[in-house]
What does this fold into?
Amino acid sequence: MSAVGPPGDLPDFDEVVGRDALLERADTSLLELVDHVLDKGAVIEGELLLGLADVDLIYVRLSALVCAAERVLDRPSRPPGDAP
Amino acid sequence: MSGGLWLYAFVDDVVLVGHDLGLGLAGEPLRLVAPAGLRAVVGALPGAPPAPTPAALREHDAAVRRLEGLAGAVLPARFGQVAADEAALAERIGPRVDALRRALDLVRGREQMTLRLFGPLEATGALPAADDPGDTGLGPGARYLARRRAALGVPEAAGLLEALGARVRATRVERPAAGAGELLASVYHLVDRGAADGYRAQVEALAPGLAPRRVRVSGPWPAYAFAGEAP
It folds into this structure.
């Protein structure tokens, strides 16, 4: 995947998070990774690779996918507690 | 052609000065720099900044985690913080030096645990609506304040959070935007390093009492949620 340019040049959601793989694994670790590493942490002034609104959108969609995956697969996601 | 300096974390109380900091997400050697009187760990990118793929996010997080064994205070940087060079980095953080120092003081010797509270939306209990007199007997101003307090706290898990209180040094709470499924709230707790196992055991012991709501715990994490100003 090519590097991201200015904030207007955004990666495709499916390329970034692999929707099908997420549903198969019901993996909450990616959700945790996105929330912590991509949406939190110290910010320096200047352009970000992704605008905050775009990160929020990814996080919201991931949250919905994880909840849906739990229902469809009728089992909880991978045991919590372990960082990726 | 260099892609600039990728910021991994601000650090303090570096206990292993001169120690190999390892490699960053692009395979670049990490090094310690001193922008605006602070200390930061950066890597010189060999080319364009990497895209936020899951693998890249994991590599960034892994690099930050390695620093926790080398410094007493580690304030993680968000993925994607790039400066042209050390001078540019110093210029960008200059206005925020005091805030960054306070954040470093807060996270010194600590790490983060994260709780996710899930549940059916109808089980949250209705907060007083602004235009619904309900049975609360509260006036419109008091109802507004009640809603604000409820939004900032997590009344759905009040018992759990109160029980964890002795282990917690700082808290951040987030309510998700609409469309996040059954995720009701995210609670970020700052705890002393080494306290994660006891924290998790307590959460798992108390989780059944939250039914029909569910709680998921993850961590320990570097203190990502405590890198900004307190609300």
Remarks:
- DSSP finds six helices and nine strands in chain B.
- Residues 110-226 of chain B form a domain with the Alpha-Beta Plaits fold (CATH 3.30.70.260).
- Chain B has two domains: 5-107, 110-226.
